[in-house]
Amino acid sequence: MLLNEYGEDGQILAGGQSLMPTLNMRLSNPQLLIDINHLHELNSITLDDNIVRIGALARHSELALSPIIDMYLPLIADAIPHVAHIAVRNRGTFGGSVALADPAAELPACVLALGGTVVLQSVKGIRKVKADDYFLGLYETERKPNELLIEVQIPVQDLTGLWAFVELSQRKGDYAIAGLAFIGTSEKQFIKTAKLVYFGSEIKPTLAKKTMAILINTRWDDNTRKLIAETLGRDLDPMTNLQGSAKMKLHLQKVLTNRAIDLALKREKPSR
Amino acid sequence: MANKTTPLTILDRPNSYIGRSLSREGAKRAVAGRGRYTDDISLPRMLHAAFVRSPYAHAKILAVNVDEARQQPEVTLVMTGTELQELCTGPWIGTLSSFEGMKSAPQYPMAIGRACWQGEPIVMVVASSRAAAEDAAEFVTIEYEQLPVVADKETALDPECPIIHPELGDNLAFRKVIDNGDVKQGLADADIVIEETFQFGRHTAVSLETRALLADYEPTDGHLTIYTSSQVPHMIQAVFARTLGVAEHKVRIIAPDIGGSFGLKIHTYGDEVATTAASIKLGRPVKFIADRLESFLTDIHARENRVWGRIGVSKEGEIKSLEIDVRSAAGAYSQFPRTSVFEANQILNITGGPYKHKNYKAKTEVVYLNKVPTSQYRAVGHPIGNSVGEALVDQAAEACGIDPLEMRRRNIMEDDQYPRVSAAGIKLQDMSHQQCLEALAKHMDYENLRVEQDKFRKKGIQRGIGIAAFIKGTAPGPAGYYGTGGAPIASQDACTIKLEPSGGVICMIGVTDQGQGVDTVMCQIAASVLGLRAESVRVIEGDTDAVPYGGGTYASRATAIGGEATYQASLLLRKEILSIAGTLLQAEPITLDIVDENVVNKSDNQIRISVSEIGRIGHFQVAELPNNIQPTLSVTYRYRLHDALYIFTNGIQGAYVEVDIDTGFIKLLNHWVVEDCGRVISPQLADEQVRGGCVQGIGGALYEECVYNEAAQLQNGTLADYLTPMAGEMPDINVYHIQTPTSVSELGAKGVGESGTGAAPAVLMNAVNDALRPFDACVTKQPMTPETVLASLGTV
Question: Which of A18, B301, B528, B738 is in Cβ range 3.0-4.6 Å of B676 for a Cys bridge?
Answer without folding.
Answer: B738
